[in-house]
């Protein structure tokens, strides 16, 4: 029985990895647009002059600006050469295919090759790209795109620095407007300390698998492991929801679409961990197998995939970065610990001698 369960686990993991590789293209593109973390904090300080229905915010850990215009008149975003770039109004979102910014802003690196029709001096050629009142875009004016940090950061990397104050010009008809904001360097946390805490925690949890499964302490350990796996699953779901909210998801429908489109594996493994934890708390048959499989998937798809927050000052969630690091530490401790403990319990069960057959009368 144990051998059959392990074979099934291998098939499930292989299928999960194959699906991940098959989705590597879209997932990589999404990851490039929504980074796992950064040491540069981008903030919007003002939209001047203010207009009813017009709002701007930073999304995706500072990788994009999001402009919403629910007013009666369209607002244009001005490109890098003073040309019309985006237009947002009652009739939807349009982009000027003549604007170089239309192509440069498709990636956060701004390295898209410009087509021949890109000419900032040419009359705008508007193409509708969305029927909503919201647009998101990368903007080179609000980002630090160099691989090396600014000189002031290299001179004193242990404290915050104002990199620059930035301005993105807008236009409402003939009226000039602007988005103003700041770009700051924030010192990254000590990733080593977070990894030490997570490693000590997962070793302590994994050690619970050394208790004899058939004993009373082993039964209590199973319940504890189940509860911890539920906690890890909740932490994974919370972090995943936070990532989508930070990416600009609005409303329950927008959040659901974002979760299924960009964070589906982390979401599914978090929910599976909760289910496996409840299964273990009920002391159902094959609970050890459920712990091992769900814990391994949780650690891989929700823990290791987001461990970059340990080394980044700004996490891709709408709350303090320390809270994000705590959530990922809980995910790793619960996932790796439950996987190790479940595997140890399965091994101990497989080595238990079979009961002697009852004597024949």
Outline type:
elongated
Give the helix/strand class. Answer: alpha+beta
Poorly predicted spans: 1-32
Please state the oligomeric state of the protein chains shown.
single chain
- N-C termini distance: 30 Å
The largest sheet has its strands arranged as 1-10-9-4-5-6-7
Helical content (DSSP H or I, runs of 4+)? 40-55%
Mean pLDDT: 87
Number-wise, the strands total 10
> How much beta, percentage-wise?
15-25%
How big is the Rg? 26 Å
Taking the sheet with the most strands, its summary is: 7 strands, antiparallel
Task: Give the SSE order as H and E letters.
Answer: HHEEEEEEHEEHEEHHHHHH
Helix count, DSSP H or I runs of 4 or more residues = 10
Task: List strands and helices in order, with pairings.
Elements: H1 2-22, H2 24-33, E1 40-48, E2 54-59, E3 64-69, E4 75-78, E5 84-89, E6 92-96, H3 100-104, E7 126-130, E8 134-137, H4 151-155, E9 161-172, E10 175-185, H5 191-206, H6 216-246, H7 251-262, H8 264-281, H9 287-303, H10 321-351
Antiparallel strand pairs: 1-10, 2-3, 3-8, 4-5, 4-9, 5-6, 6-7, 9-10
In short:
It is built from ten helices and ten strands. With 361 residues, the protein is an alpha+beta fold.
Keywords:
361 residues; alpha+beta; 7-stranded antiparallel β-sheet; 3-stranded antiparallel β-sheet; 19% strand; disordered N terminus
Describe this structure in words.
The chain has 361 residues and is α+β, with helices and mostly antiparallel strands. It is built from 10 helices and 10 strands. The chain has helices at 2-22, 24-33, 100-104, 151-155, 191-206, 216-246, 251-262, 264-281, 287-303, 321-351, and strands at residues 40-48, 54-59, 64-69, 75-78, 84-89, 92-96, 126-130, 134-137, 161-172, 175-185. The strands form 2 sheets. The chain has a 7-stranded antiparallel β-sheet. Strands 2-3-8 form a 3-stranded antiparallel β-sheet, with no helix packed on it. α6 packs across α7 and α6 (216-246) packs antiparallel against α10 (321-351). The chain is elongated. The two termini are 30 Å apart. Mean pLDDT is 87; it is low at 1-32.
